[in-house]
Design brief:
Layout: H1 8-15, H2 17-22, H3 29-45, E1 54-55, H4 57-64, H5 68-81, E2 84-86, E3 92-94, H6 99-120
Antiparallel strand pairs: 1-3, 2-3
């Protein structure tokens, strides 16, 4: 005797999990801010948010269908990672690097890669 679900809801409930993961509002709160940070990071890296551009929390909250506080939390993650800078109040801007900043980054990277190569040999 085969055991089948008594109702069709048990079968369809499992099928809806994948679609809920794509919906930011359906993700548990701890993961929501991380998922939003990923989405905003992709906007920055893709050039859709340009260096120096102000990120308006309310607009992004409406666009992504989430609470403004979730966007703020995601921006805090991006600020810690160096993708945005936080100003007074709630404003955040995409990080704008000067030429000297970029040169410095490459100098540090070169030094670290040299040290890593010496350690592995």
């Amino acid at each position: 005797m085969s055991q089948e679900p008594e109702n069709s809801e048990a079968v369809t409930a499992g099928q809806g999990v994948e679609s809920k993961l794509r919906d930011p509002a359906a993700v548990p709160r701890g993961l929501l801010k991380e998922n939003l940070a990923v989405q905003l990071r992709e906007e920055i890296l893709g050039g859709r948010l340009v260096p120096g551009e102000k990120i308006i929390e309310g607009r992004w909250a409406r666009q992504l269908g989430v609470a403004q506080v979730s966007i703020r939390e995601a921006l805090n993650i991006l600020a810690a990672e160096g993708f945005v800078t936080k100003g007074h109040g709630r404003s955040a801007r995409v990080l704008r690097l000067r030429d000297s900043d970029i040169i410095h980054i490459y100098q540090v990277r070169g030094a670290l890669e040299g040290l890593a190569a010496r350690i592995t040999i």
